[in-house]
Write a structure and sequence with these properties.
Layout (H helix, E strand, L loop, with lengths): L1 H13 L9 H15 L13 H12 L4 E4 L13 H9 L4 E4 L9 E5 L4 H13 L4 E8 L10 H20 L5 H6 L1 E6 L4
Parallel strand pairs: 1-2, 3-4, 4-5
Helix pairs in contact: 1-2, 3-4
Length: about 200
Amino acid sequence: AARDLGWRDRQANETRAWHRPLPWLQYREAILRADLDGEGIDAASRVLVGHPPSVLAQAILDDAAMLVILGAPPDIAVEPRPFGSTAEHLVRHSRVPVLTVRRRVRAGYRHVAVATDFSEPARHALELAARWFKGARLTLFHASETAGPLLGENIDADQRRREALERACAEHLERTSLAPARIAAISRVIAEGSTG
């Protein structure tokens, strides 16, 4: 199926206009519809033309979307940015959450890492992940800059800082609406070092 989808996408981009059975927009819509149907996804679809960040921002408003999911281009690993320009624009300017996906998912997610800074939006992200990925193992991940002396130079200060972060993590989890059993099952990773 993946090979067939890739072939159809290449065909949409490489087929000359006079060889296409439909006008370009209808042709792209038909390919998108076939991809969705082939995956068993029941969703409305539209193909829009224009400056992608602007067109998507307007579509998000028009549809009253509560989440945007974008596929990251496969060649983005060679770019200095973590996203393409459209995804970067939406991540920076969208009023709704934006989720980027690098690879096509062929099975359910078994392990999901949720980054946190212990803020209210991070709590919402954790609760959303717990709702969406009920059967998955969750790991709550917090990274912070090393404060004061370098790690290992002052063992007592390092230990106190670590304990403070662990308390903050526990308090963050307690503020969620998650059941105690779900909270207990969440792995916690606290890392210190350069976050830049």
